[in-house]
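Section: Multi-chain targets

For targets with more than one molecule, the full set of components is provided together so that the structure can be written out for the assembly as a whole rather than chain by chain. Components appear in the order listed by the source. The example entry contains two components.
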Amino acid sequence: MKHARTIATLLVLLVLVALPFGLGHYGYYILATVMIYAIVALSLNVLIGMGGQISIGHAGFWALGAYGSALVVIKLGFPFLAGVLVGGLVAAIFGALVALPALRVQGHYLAIATLGFALFVQQVLFEWEGLTGGRQGLFVPRPSLFGYELQTDFSYYYVLLAVFLLLAWITGNFAGSHTGRSLMALKMSSVAAECCGIARPIHIIIAFTISAFFTGVSGALYGHLLGHLSTETFSLAVSLSFLTMAVIGGLHSRAGALLGGAYLALAPELLREFKDAQMVIYGITLILCVQFLPGGLISLVERVWTIRRPPRAAP
Amino acid sequence: MPLLEIANLSLAFSGLRALANVSFDVEEGEIVGLIGPNGAGKSTLLNCISRLYQPDGGTIRFDGHDLGGRSAPEVAAMGIRRTFQNLELFREASVRENVALGLVYRYGSPLLAEFLALPGVRAKQRAALEDAERIVSECGLGEWAEARVAELPYGLQKLVELARALAGHPKLLLLDEPAAGMNREESTQVAETVRRLRDRDGITVLLIEHDMRVVMTVCERIVVLDHGEKIAEGSPAEIRRSPAVIKAYLGDELEDA
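Its structure, encoded as tokens over all components, is:
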């Protein structure tokens, strides 16, 4: 069992490393976006999958990360990786703030509060012309490592893959940690958890902060991929598609986050001919997924996987 | 000094009186029963002690500390643990994980160290797991350690809740109808377990129970509530003879009939 998992993980890694070979520039770009989206899906794994919280405001954290990183790189001359870290931290600070309403409200109300946050961020970035360029937007330099500019998205893809793997590793550690398990306990029964000595507020704040940090890092990385930022990139539709991809990929699995990222990056390419009908197809996919595949696409993979192994002895 | 001092406790839900001026003490190492007809306010009282409800008036002191203004997790960390009338379990988790969650708060690590799974963090996780494992097997749940709690029969689920409460090494254990839904043999076992917890581990117990056989055999003192008021307090023999108690119970039965 343990061996099977290790082998599967190694195989996935091998495929991820080999993927770009034989592709062109556009292929590299798409693969890069897969990783960037997958990091957001990881962040929603933590927030929704583990924490049981909802957010329709992740485009806000994404924007804060993107602008935070771009600005310190352009105006203060930070190196690329430091900029990405700053982007994540800026988003994380706002994540902790957005957690505050989550301590009071749940479900629809929280969804609306996070939605309001994202609209607020987008509007402020748009209006604050002196800092963000407003309508003109910002030109963001190419990513560079140790003084070498990453000229192509081929090499950038590997940087993104490394960041994804690092954050996936951290997510796994967190899921097994006492804090992570306490968070999941609160989701299962907050009354029971509190009577076990587990305080709800701090755990909800931690969940939002981690989730916002990851999404901020993703946004920062995205800015350097795009080369140009404008506030239109961070619309309400983006928040909704983040939520969709995380659910479709699977909210309880790191591999599911990867599938979610692949879905969000590839679906528009595959459905290009459907033009405006695309949104209808996304909607239907989401409904079907929630209805028949609550564990997301990854649960299909896991199902096939388990059929081929003898079932565990019943208790 | 009593371990638990309840003085003039009152609570109303939107005008409906749930507790009115209830006062009694629980001495360290005592097993006290809380009985009364349905709706007498027994569970409400337990919820006030574990701070799931904030009382409108009166004080609760535990180990000399006023519980006013403290949260449920703080009170749990002080050594008050409980079970629930209608089970509050982590249903999707395993028996072992349920018990482990009862004690993880005592094994905290810095968050950044947890992200990186540093050796110190892993050592604490192992220690917590061993602690949980020991309690699981002591409670006779070893066979089901890996099983998902939702799949277990009711009696075992109640046992998991008790094990989880014990994982917190409580000074005071609050049991809300531990023998509910059990047959005679099982409820005798519950009574024996409660006795053993007190005799061997020195745990003070306050328990709500409808099974009079259990209450009368295991409790040293009984507090009777009716319509949110304390109507009697005393030894099992005194309670059995108390006219107020007889009236409360018989009156209740007559109304029901």
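The interface with chain B takes residues 170, 173-174, 176-182, 184-185, 188-189, 191-200, 206, 315 of chain A (CB under 8 Å).
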